[in-house]
Every structure is written in C-alpha cells, then in structure tokens.
Amino acid sequence: MERGVETLAEFYTPADVQRIMKVSEQKAYRIIRDLNAEMKQEGYMVIQGKVNRNKFNERFIYQGKSAM
C-alpha cells in the first residue's frame, strides 16, 4: 500500500459520514465543517471536505465508560 493512501485512511469523507450517521449529503458536509472548525481552533491543520476519524468518533460514536 502506498504511504499516502494509508494516511488518507485516517479521514472520513462526506459519503462515510452519510453512511454512518444516516444523514443527507448536505448535513454530512455541515458536520465535517463544524468538526474541522473545532480542530482549527485547537491548532490543527484540516482538509476541506474530510474529517479526522478520531475527532468524529470522539464526538459521535458512543464508546461507553471504561472499566473503573
């Protein structure tokens, strides 16, 4: 696998967000814009139209509480 392909796997596209969240394309782009705006505020560089998987999962995927 090419190196560039591996790193792009760390991002979701609007189609991925649509599939995961069962939302329209417009809503998927809005979610990506909002998350990317947060990441910019935190000092990260972002790619327009893609969102970091970890950031998306942190905000939208319920992980449950860790064992105490």
Explain this structure to me?
Helices cover 57% and strands 6% of the residues. Strands 1-2 form a two-stranded antiparallel sheet. Helix 2 packs across helix 3. It is globular, with a radius of gyration of 13 Å. By secondary structure, the protein is mainly alpha-helical.
N-to-C order of helices and strands: HEHHEH
Strand composition percent: 5-15%
The total beta strand count reads 2
Radius of gyration: 13 Å
What is the molecular shape?
Answer: globular
What portion of residues is helical? 55-70%
Largest sheet: 2 strands, antiparallel
Gap from first CA to last CA:
39 Å
Arithmetic mean of pLDDT: 87
Low-pLDDT windows of residues: none
Our count of domains comes out at: 1
Task: Give the helix/strand class.
Answer: mainly alpha
Q: Helical element count? A: 4
Q: In which order are the strands of the major sheet placed?
A: 1-2
